[in-house]
Specification:
mainly beta; 488 residues
């Protein structure tokens, strides 16, 4: 018998030994939703929430093949929804000339995998490169969001199993862990309050909570607008929290004066019916007194904080009849605060890997655009820049690559050409095995560093030149001021 569950392990049992499993198979990064035994070739199929299918050999307990199913309803860096019965295995005995196959369901889509009934090469299924050298062990469940707290000098990571960890950036040591932050529901986004002493988290079921970063206590539970996913949060200077998501509206919460555990939502923003699709990204710019929201249909809307209403709609031209969703937004705060540059390319948006620089004043709004990922078909899920000069732009894509661009002279003039050139690429390296869900530029111990958190369950720290400082959670701690302790 084979079993799987929330602890991400697959266990084999026999009727002869009932006190413990005969084998424990590790490698999945999220909850195992279903398992099956394929007897003709002595293999086990296991399927997890992140749409990963693994094939195991019953005798050797080795992972023979890992398949990442690409459903059209998937968004990179996010865990797709599944029904109660994601698996259907059809195996012998079958009608004549009927091939064995496996059907996997995700939302409204089905994946059909044809199966062989004979071992190939004596070892069952093989990948193109040959058999995997056993499962890769990751430090924890898949990451869904992360942020850097410059006041406490710590990284906060949020995971799909609803756990959170707080890490000391100067050493890589974990300071605090919070389990079951939103019950069994996946964490989707997080933000800091204006003083960086409290953490606000959102989940896929629409719930929002406020936490004390020093002791991990849950201070407030915010009234959900709907039971649909919260995708982005931001806290204004007076601790007015703004939340967006699949509700397609902007909800505001006053967490500055909140004394009760439960905080009511204020729906004073003129956002009803403005976005026609799910809102995926949110960013604020205090220097200009605006926020920007972006939705799945590719539309970017600028809102004025003073009036709580929309003032500008930005939209890319359709490509091949389709407009891709906006995955990330970033205001270049230094440019926005500089009167000579504030009407230039001050807002960056990511559309399926294409980075667009927008002006939010004047008649012409597009100041430049270029495709960032090294490989076609990948997307950029996170953007960051140095706050003091905005000389560099850091992008992280869905293949795990991190890129540092020189934008000191980019998007300062209106572009008239239909094809735009890339800015100079300063550094590029593969930081993780899977999608980068968060990248941040930070200055610690008088050093400019890059933080990257990935859906593969790990987070790492690099220097701006690409030198690996270390991975959070590793056994040997580092000292950020001593390069000799870096994991080279």
């Amino acid at each position: 018998m084979v079993a799987g569950g929330r602890d991400r392990a697959v266990r084999l049992w026999t009727r002869f030994v009932t006190t413990r499993p005969v084998a424990t198979l590790l490698g999945h990064r999220t909850t195992v939703l279903d398992v099956a035994i394929y007897q003709p070739v002595g293999q086990i199929f296991s399927y997890s929430r992140d749409a990963e299918l693994r094939v195991w050999d019953i005798s050797s307990h080795h992972c023979l093949k890992t398949i990442h199913l690409q459903f059209p309803c998937q968004l990179p860096g996010r865990t797709p929804e599944h029904g109660n019965f994601p698996f259907l295995l059809l195996s012998p005995p079958l009608p004549e000339q009927t091939q064995s196959h496996l059907v996997v369901g995700c939302k409204d889509y089905l994946a059909l995998l044809n199966l062989s009934e004979v071992r190939r090469g004596g070892g069952g299924w093989l990948t193109d490169e040959g058999r995997e050298r056993g499962p890769k062990i990751h430090p924890g469940p898949a990451l869904s969001c992360a942020l850097y707290n410059s006041t406490l000098r710590e990284l906060v990571t949020g995971h799909v199993d609803s756990s959170m960890s707080l890490w000391d950036v100067e050493t890589g040591r974990r300071r605090l862990q919070i389990l079951n932050a939103h019950g069994e529901d996946e964490l989707t986004c997080m933000a800091l309050d204006s003083l960086h002493k409290r953490l606000i988290t959102g989940a896929c079921n629409g719930t929002i909570k406020v936490w004390n970063l020093l002791n991990g206590l849950n201070l407030h539970k915010l009234e959900p607008v709907t039971n649909s996913e919260v995708t982005a949060l931001t806290c204004l200077h007076d601790n007015q929290l703004l939340a967006v998501g699949w509700s397609q509206r902007i909800a505001q919460y006053d967490i500055a004066a909140a004394k009760d555990l439960y905080v009511r939502a204020e729906m004073s923003w003129k956002s009803s019916g403005v976005h026609k699709s799910d809102i995926l990204a949110l960013c604020q710019c205090s220097a200009l007194g605006v926020i920007a929201t972006a939705s799945h249909d590719g539309e970017v809307i600028i809102w004025r904080l003073e009036t709580q209403g929309p003032v500008l709609h930005l939209q890319r031209h359709a490509q091949n009849g389709a407009i891709p969703p906006v995955d990330s937004l970033l205001f270049l705060q230094h440019r926005a605060g500089n009167r000579k540059l504030r009407n230039k390319g001050v807002l960056v948006s990511s559309h399926a890997g294409c980075l667009c620089f927008w002006s939010i004043a004047g008649q012409t709004h597009t100041y430049g655009q270029f495709f960032a990922p090294e490989q076609p078909g990948e997307r950029v899920m996170s953007l960051s820049s140095d706050q003091t000069t905005n000389n560099i732009l850091v992008s992280g894509d869905t293949a795990g690559w991190l890129q540092i661009w020189d934008i000191s002279h980019y998007a300062l003039d209106i572009q008239h050409e239909s094809i735009y050139e890339r800015p100079p690429l300063l550094q590029c390296w593969k930081a993780h095995e899977r999608a980068l869900v968060s990248v941040e530029v930070l200055e610690v111990a008088e050093r400019l560093c890059i933080l990257a958190a990935s859906a593969d369950g790990s987070a790492g720290l690099w220097t701006k030149d690409g030198e690996h400082v270390g991975s959070f959670g590793q056994e040997v701690l580092w000292s950020i001021s001593d390069p000799a302790t870096y994991q080279r």
